[in-house]
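go over whats below:
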Amino acid sequence: MLSLRLAVVFGVAALMSARLTTCRSPGEGGAEPSPSKPEQSDVTLAGVDTSALTSREKSEWSRYVSEFLTPCADQPVSIAQCVKEARACKACAPAAKYLVELARHGQVRAQVEAAYKARFSPEAVHAIDLQGAPSKGPDNARVVVTEFADFQCPVCGAKRPVIEEVLKKHSSDMRLVFKHFPITFHENAEKAARAAVAAQRQNKFWEMHAALFENQQNLAPENVENLAKGIGLDMKHFLADRDSEVVADAVTKDRKQGEALGVKGTPSLFINGRMFVPGDDFAEDLDAWITLEVELSPEPSPSKAAVAPAAPESAAAASPSARGPKPVPEKAAAHAKSSASAP
């Protein structure tokens, strides 16, 4: 009988423990009740539409804009105060509008704080080495979108037309930079990435980029070789480069860079160095991020559109006409342009 009673006691204890672990509302902590929050009077900010919020959501949003500091370090006041006083921080009103969307989607405070920091905090901006990476768009674009992608990844293939459409819409303000991040369990991804680098060495990266994504279902090396022929590559140099150690190192370098930036899967985008975290609508969110970046970024100086820089040199050297120019460091290129335009 004693054993039976003990079994019942332990069973009840285990059940209560399981319920505490799995039946908890988002944001709740342990067994201690959360301290009650002081009443927050609703906030109204000029130019910020909160009409879609429920009364509870409006109260939460009012708390956020009253407590969160502005994105501008030189304006250490709340977002609400910044907007009301028209402080010298262009990001204040956009930040308030962004918090409207977070409140409307019912995210708890911890999620809202994390999303706000990721979107607006200066600490969330990463320095990304773009030297030698293929790109298209103005080289002085207000918005630089760096994409880490895998040619065999079906999600990358699905998002490709969306990214291309956004690039087309923001063609005068956006530059797209490609970084290789082949996923280990995609058996042909590594070789496909090397093929793209080899094509880049003949100034045909984007042609190979399109061909690889359009043939995602068959990226076996022999088929990729046919794609290389189809876009007019010099096959002797293509094969030598694809299988060279220096091209393999270039792919590995991109992947390691992605890992250091926190890339876990593909596609992963960084917009002006800030990791893009989409919501339910990838296309709408991407367009909104870029539109806001254009609004917040200074007007660029006149410049020509960028082309894909040459890939790293390999042992199989080709003629200058086949290879194209070596990449020019960005600072040197800027200095050269400045000198050329000087009277």
About this structure: The chain has a mean pLDDT of 83. The first helix runs from residue 2 to 22. The domain at 135-328 is CATH 3.40.30.10 (Glutaredoxin). Residues 14 and 128 are 49 Å apart (CA to CA).
